[in-house]
Structures are given as C-alpha cells and as structure tokens.
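Input sequence (194 aa), recorded before submission:
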Amino acid sequence: MMTEAQLRERSGNKCELCGSESSTGVYDVLPEPAAKVDNQILVCGKCKAQLEKKEELDSKHWSCLTTSMWSEVPAVQVVSWRLLNRLKQESWAMEHLDMMYLDDDMLAWAKASGDHENDSAVEFHRDCNGAILQEGDAVVLTKSLDVKGSTLNAKMGTVVKNIRLVENNTEQIEGKIEGQTIVILTKYVRKQGA
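Predicted structure, token format:
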C-alpha cells in the first residue's frame, strides 16, 4: 500500500479524478482487489463527498471522467468506471463507458462494491419539511413522542440539540432529551431555524 506522500508524488498533488489542487486526501477504492494492486487514489473534497454519497452527483463536475478514465492507475480506472455507470443517464457518460475497457480482474474489482448499480440519487436525512439535516443540527419535535423502554415522554416543541445522523438509515437521527440518548424518526422533527 502506498503512503500518502507517494500518492501525492504520483498525482502531482492533484485530485486524480478532476485535477483540483484544493483539499486533497486519500480515498480507498474498496474492496481491495485480490491482485496486489494499489487501491488508493488522491481525491479533492468535492469528489470525495460525491463518491461517498454525501452530496448529489454533479454531472458537470464529472465531465473530468473523460480524461481520468484513461489513467494508467488501476484504482482511478475502477472509480471512473463506477462513476460513469452511476451517470449513465447522461449521454456523454454512456458514450465514454462504451469506449472504456477493463480487463476481467479490474472489471470484477469495479463491480465488487455494487456501487456501479446505484444511480446518481443520494438519500439524505430530511426533516418533515424536506430540509436536509446534518450532524450537529438542532431540531424541534413536531409531535409528542413516548420513548420505548422508558417513562420519558418527549413533548411536541422540545428542542433537541447536536443531533447525530444514524448511518445507513435516513429516517432516523439520535439526540439527547433529558439526558437520555434516543432514536427519533426524522418525520417527527423540523430543523430549527428552517
């Protein structure tokens, strides 16, 4: 596995997908392939957020794939292939996907995550009004809630500060009410100040 310094040297300290020089960091291309191939690339913050589905895919930003797909770095090729698949509703992405070739091992690596089967839609934690919730936000309960396994009753209008997002479930958040950490359904909260 390469060190971050080696990745920065290989990439010229630029994002290996879009060429940006701002806030670059290491991104692991999982799962690791069976062959001993480097599975890390250097990406900018914007690319990383969209790769990790923390932002909607911006097809204009990803026009850079028309260049990065020809990289000699296998991990860059794999990520480019996955993203082109996620963007295949765009005619330019489908055309470039048709031009791209990955050998059998690399294609197996690219398909192993299943990420290519997902479309570009990203699911966010949203309150009852559709506002996007983020880690650390404050929310207001829109309904009185009985807390299971407790005598606690969270009253409508209660402010819950510093929420945590429940990973892999966009319908749930965690927050503290009267010193107890509880799970709250997002449909029963409104983002404070929204």
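Checked by second reader. The domain at 139-191 is CATH 2.30.30.40 (SH3 type barrels.).
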